[in-house]
Amino acid sequence: MVNIKALNPEGGPEAAYGARIRGVREERGWRQDDLATQTGYSSKHISAVETGRRSSTLAFSKSLDVAFGLADTVESFEREWRKLRHGNLLEGFPEFLGYEGRASEIRLYEVGVIPGLLQTPAYAAALADSAVRRGAATPEQASERVALVAKRQAALDRTPPPVVMVVLDEGCIRRPLGGADVMSEQFAHLAEFAERPNTVLQVAPFRMGGRRPFNLPITVLTLPDRSVMCYAESAQRGHLERESSVVLPLLGDYHQLQAEAPSQKESVAMIEQVRKGTS
Prior knowledge:
Layout: H1 13-27, H2 32-39, H3 43-50, H4 58-68, H5 77-85, H6 93-100, E1 105-110, H7 121-133, H8 139-154, E2 163-169, H9 170-174, H10 180-194, E3 199-204, E4 218-222, E5 228-233, E6 238-241, H11 244-260, H12 264-276
Parallel strand pairs: 1-2, 2-3
Antiparallel strand pairs: 1-4, 4-5, 5-6
Helix pairs in contact: 2-3, 4-5, 7-8, 10-12
C-alpha cells in the first residue's frame, strides 16, 4: 500500500500551494502519474512540490493550469504562484515592475530612502537587514528584495536605455544606513548616476516646504507607445494608475517639482557636502 504523506496547508504559503495541487488532482481522480503525463513533469517532481520539499516555478504552474483547465482564470496556479513569489511586495508593485522594465522614460520622486534603481548592493542589503531586525521581513524575503534591486537596475542598461529623472527628498541623503562606508559608497554611486547621458538627478531640500507637490513616493512611466502611467505607494499598498486624466496632472506636478528643485550640479554638490559632513 502506498504511504501517502499527510499535508499541512497551514505550514506556510508553499505548503498551502502544494496541498492545493493535491486537492485539485484528487478531485479529478488523478494519481501523480496521471498529472505527470498531463504536465510533462515527473511524478517525483510533483510529489516534491505537493509536500513542500520543492518550490514551484512559473513554468510548472502554467503546466498545471493547462492540465487542470485553469489557465487565465482567477483560480489559476500561475496567479497563485505570482502571489506566492511576490507575497512580501506591496500590492500593485509586481505589475508595476513589468512596465518599469520596458519604459522609455522613468520619472521618480522618493522620500526617506534611496530608491531601488539607485541603490548600491551594500545599501540595499542594509535596508533589507533593517526590515529583518524589525520583524517586517524574513531573511529569505530580505534576500529576494536585494536580488530584485539588482534585477531592476539591469534593465537600465538595455539598448536604448531609458531616460531616468530622479528627485530625492533631502531626507533620502540625510538618513544613514549601514554605516559610514556604505553611505560613502552610495553617495559616490549617486554622483556616477548623475553623470550618465540619459539621467537627471536632483535633491529637493527641506526648505522647499509647501512648494514640494508630493508627500509620498511616486513614479511616472512613459512607455514606448508614449502612453503614461504612474505608481504611488503608502506603507500599506501600492497603486498603479493608467487613466490619463489622473496621470497627466501628476506629470505636470513632477515638472513643477523639477523646476523648483536645485539643479543637478547644485544637488550633486549638496550630496558631496553631506558625504563630507560639512552640511
